[in-house]
Structure formats: structure tokens, C-alpha cells
């Protein structure tokens, strides 16, 4: 009886996910950390989300293919995927600590599916064309963009010209269509964080320093560094789950920092029970080397950074719960009962 109730509830959740919710685009560097996979899991299974697109800002073919595999597993086969060019066949190698494993090629191969089948990464969209198409088709002030990686795609969108999708240049298209830009990057009130300096830091500076027309919310390194998650997914998740496998491949059965899952949870739900604004005035300034400083200017109210409402341990437990529930709510996994897990 318990299994029947669980299955029935998850079918309802799966149906709810097909209704129109928050219009979300994720821009991810799905490659060198597994929290991007956790963030995709949350977005792909949330009944609150209409996932318009996923753009990949790291040019490995395996990044695009893994994104497609993950989305397909959770029933998002029609979500378009873009990736920056030129593509490479590079795989991740942890040359810093030698403790982390590679997961994107394995997930892409073993769970091949969706719009980009194994070996067909070139079929992915150009990320700027995908941005412009999706934004042009959306109602005004309706799209949230969650940036959980580098800034190549967003910088190129800002520089884009009118095309077949919209007569508006990039900045005007953004101002017309984007409700909020949510960025995982930087430290607050100041710091030097990987998403800003690890790719091309001048592009991070370009996006953060010139973005206009919609609010920006920053989720900093300090938010997720000590909020660990993933163990419940590893220990209790369905056997055939690609994100569970990704966490195992990457961290060898250890919890990981929750930078990107926290960012996407805010992008989906807003402040909710997890977050509060650390400040609601001023603006973030990024230098050409990727370092950032918050400028406390009370005349500017369009930018803010997040703080946690709960302790790091309680927040981590909540992220763990969300990741596990997300796998159980997916169309693919709804037939598992608790007795089988």
C-alpha cells in the first residue's frame, strides 16, 4: 500500500511538471564539478519550472551530451541545449587535488538520450541563437536566467545583433524579456571566486558590469562552500539515476558543496525558507582579473546578494532532501517503491 501511495503521488508530481511554471534558462559549466548535475536535477524535475533551455558554457562535447542525457532521464527530452564553440573532446582531470573523478562522459554514454544522442554534440544549438530564439518567444519580463558557470554565452548575448528571431540588439532583448539574472559567482562583500576568474574573467566583468534592464541576484562562494549535499541521493536514490551516478563518479561517495543547487533553488523559488538578502542596495563590480567588490551605493537597488536563513547544516540537509525527492518525482523513477530503493 505504501508503494502504491508513493507511486500515485509521484505520477501527480510528474504531471504537474508539464504545466507552465517559472520560465527558466540554465547556463552551466557542466564539467569540472558535480553540483551542476544536481542543479539540473532540481530544475528538470520541479513542478514549478518551465525549463526553456540549457546553455553549456564549457566547450566539451561530453558536457552537452551529459546535459541531454540528464534532461532526457527526467522527461525533458524537448528542452533545447546550446553549447559554445569550438567543441573539444576534453574530459575533466583533477590536477589540483587528485581526489575527484570525471563524470560527464560516463553519464553521456551510459544514459545517452534526448536531443543529443551519444556522438552528436555538434547538433547542439549555438548558445546565442538559442538565447535569442527562446527570449523572443517569451512574454515580456518573464524569463529567469540562472548562471552557474562561466560567462561566454551571456557576454555573447549582450553583444548580439538583431537577427531572424528578434529585431532587438542583445541589451534591449534582455531588458524586454528577462525577469531576473541569478549568478553563482563571486564572494560577498568581496573576493576572488572561480566562476569569475576560471574562464575568461573579462567576460565575467563584461556581464556583471554592463547588465541592465533586470535585477541581478548573486549567490556567492560563501553561501555554498560549507553547505554539503549529495549523500542521501547516493545512499537512497534510485539505482538507475544519472545524477546519483555522477555524484558517485565525481566524489567517490562523499558529499559535495552545494553552490549550484542553492543558486537554482533560489532561481526557482525565490527567498523562501532558505535565503535572505544580505543587502538590497549597491552593486557588484568585477575587475578584469575576476575579483569582485560590492559597492554600497544606496541609489542602486537592482542588485543584491544572498545570505542563508538557516545554519549550514540545516541548509545542507534541506538540499539533500530536495535532491532525493527530485529523483523520486521524475517520470522515469516513479515506478520505484520505497521497498525497492
TrEMBL record:
<feature type="domain" description="Inosine/uridine-preferring nucleoside hydrolase">
    <location>
        <begin position="24"/>
        <end position="288"/>
    </location>
</feature>
<dbReference type="Pfam" id="PF01156">
    <property type="entry name" value="IU_nuc_hydro"/>
</dbReference>
<feature type="signal peptide">
    <location>
        <begin position="1"/>
        <end position="17"/>
    </location>
</feature>
<protein>
    <submittedName>
        <fullName>Inosine/uridine-preferring nucleoside hydrolase</fullName>
    </submittedName>
</protein>
<comment type="similarity">
    <text>Belongs to the IUNH family.</text>
</comment>
<dbReference type="GO" id="GO:0016799">
    <property type="term" value="F:hydrolase activity, hydrolyzing N-glycosyl compounds"/>
</dbReference>
<keyword id="KW-0732">Signal</keyword>
<dbReference type="InterPro" id="IPR036452">
    <property type="entry name" value="Ribo_hydro-like"/>
</dbReference>
<keyword id="KW-0378">Hydrolase</keyword>
<dbReference type="InterPro" id="IPR001910">
    <property type="entry name" value="Inosine/uridine_hydrolase_dom"/>
</dbReference>
Amino acid at each position: 500500500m505504501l508503494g502504491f501511495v508513493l507511486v500515485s503521488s509521484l505520477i501527480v508530481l510528474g504531471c504537474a511538471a508539464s504545466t507552465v511554471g517559472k520560465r527558466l534558462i540554465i547556463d552551466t559549466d557542466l564539467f569540472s564539478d558535480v553540483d551542476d548535475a544536481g542543479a539540473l536535477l532540481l530544475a528538470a524535475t520541479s513542478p514549478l519550472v518551465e525549463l526553456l533551455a540549457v546553455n553549456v558554457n564549457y566547450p566539451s562535447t561530453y558536457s552537452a551530451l551529459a546535459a541531454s542525457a540528464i534532461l532526457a532521464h527526467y522527461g525533458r527530452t524537448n528542452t533545447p541545449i546550446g553549447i559554445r564553440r569550438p567543441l573539444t573532446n576534453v574530459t575533466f582531470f583533477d590536477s589540483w587535488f587528485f581526489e575527484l573523478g570525471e563524470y560527464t562522459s560516463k553519464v553521456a554514454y551510459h544514459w545517452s538520450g534526448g536531443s543529443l544522442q551519444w556522438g552528436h554534440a555538434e547538433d547542439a544549438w549555438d548558445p546565442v541563437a538559442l538565447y535569442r530564439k527562446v527570449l523572443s518567444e517569451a512574454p515580456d519580463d518573464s524569463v529567469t536566467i540562472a548562471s552557474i558557470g562561466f560567462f561566454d554565452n551571456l557576454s555573447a548575448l549582450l553583444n548580439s545583433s538583431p537577427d531572424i528571431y528578434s529585431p532587438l540588439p542583445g541589451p534591449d532583448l534582455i531588458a524586454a524579456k528577462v525577469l531576473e539574472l541569478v549568478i553563482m559567482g563571486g564572494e560577498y562583500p568581496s573576493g576572488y571566486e572561480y566562476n569569475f576568474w576560471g574562464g575568461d574573467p573579462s567576460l565575467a566583468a563584461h556581464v556583471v558590469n554592463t547588465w541592465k534592464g533586470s535585477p541581478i541576484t548573486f549567490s556567492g562562494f560563501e553561501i555554498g562552500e560549507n553547505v554539503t549535499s549529495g549523500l542521501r541521493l547516493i545512499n537512497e536514490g534510485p539505482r538507475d539515476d544519472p545524477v546519483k551516478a555522477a555524484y558517485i563518479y565525481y566524489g567517490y561517495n562523499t558529499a559535495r558543496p552545494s553552490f549550484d543547487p542553492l543558486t537554482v533553488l533560489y532561481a526557482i523559488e525565490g527567498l523562501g525558507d532558505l535565503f535572505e538578502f544580505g543587502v538590497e542596495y549597491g552593486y557588484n563590480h568585477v575587475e578584469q582579473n575576476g575579483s569582485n567588490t560590492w559597492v554600497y551605493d544606496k541609489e542602486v537597488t537592482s542588485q543584491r546578494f544572498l545570505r542563508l536563513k538557516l545554519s549550514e547544516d540545516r541548509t545542507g540537509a534541506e538540499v539533500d532532501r530536495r535532491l532525493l525527492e527530485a529523483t523520486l518525482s521524475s517520470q522515469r523513477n516513479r515506478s520505484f517503491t520505497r521497498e525497492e530503493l
